[in-house]
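Students often ask why we bother encoding 3D structure as a string. The short answer is that it lets us treat folding as translation between two languages. Here is a chain of 363 residues written in the first language.
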Amino acid sequence: MPTGLGKTAVQWMAMANALEGKGKIVLVAPTTGLVAQQARMAREFLQIDPEKIVTMTGQDRPAKREEIWKDAKIVMATPHVIRNDGRNGRILLSDIDLLIVDEAHHATGSDSMAQLGDMYLEASSRAMILAATASPGVKAGKVLEVIQRLGIERLHVTKRDDDLVQPFITSMDITKHELNIPMLLNEIIRPLRILEAEEAEFLIRSGFLIRSGRVTTAAIEEAHRRASAAIGRGDSRGYDAAKRIGDLRRLHRLLDLLDTQGLRCAIKYLNRAKNEKDRKTKRFLSLGPVAEFYSTYKEENECHPKPALVTQLVKQGLIDGGKVIVFTEYRDTVDNILEILESEDSIRAGRFVGQASKGAKLE
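And here it is in the second language, the structure alphabet:
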């Protein structure tokens, strides 16, 4: 169901219907911010002693989580906490009457949400799972994996134009702003783009990277899979390829930041890298064009037009005394925009993100 059209309300209804059971109701969400938000709203809307609705995250000690679990009826938690406590025997997954999986598209591969689904289905013969997401995925294989890992038997798909949700849709006025990257920034980007092309060509000639016209995240992940397979069968070329693929992944991220977020955001990305002790990251930072870019532009002022436009739009949005929310893809962008907005006397800006430790490593 699309964002803002009632997935959380459906979850509350499922919880309310499961309250009469003897077991526990568990909702897992991928970030501590979502966990806290779910718990706050559930205490407001469900007719149950608020103390019976608890949260469990990695910030709680394992021994404390064991005590929290015993007296709780509804548990809001991050999936890795429930998975780990289930593995270690601190909790019994068979005690769960209903497992609600929020942002369920994460339940693939080795993600803790997927592993929890596997464990719960094995632990309980009467497992009941409600999974919800606004973005199930675009590839059939990924969607089918979510279905399999969470034991989904029935799918309910609601679109924004369905009659069921029409009375609840809030109209939106969307204004698009098309921005051109200035010549100066293109000149800054060019040596890094050449390096990306050189690294990609080497991996293409080695048979690890697919030639597809431009380097994509999907192509890099496929190259990583091929390198891992080569290492697994004893092919020594896989080790060198894996190092180059790691460099290419970081370089691709750096270029994406320069293209879409701005110079200062890209510098923040490299500043974090400088604080890492990881050898792979140090190798990336030592690449000639990367090192030259950092030393030349680490103190340079912003030349991407987007941050200035964001500041202008925020000022316009605050004229009538309301609030403005700025959504970004990267945490470095959050910090960068916050610094810019805080320099404006008329703006009081705050930062709202999930787990503080997430994103600490260079990715």
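Translate back mentally: The longest strand covers residues 96-102. Keep this in mind for the problem set.
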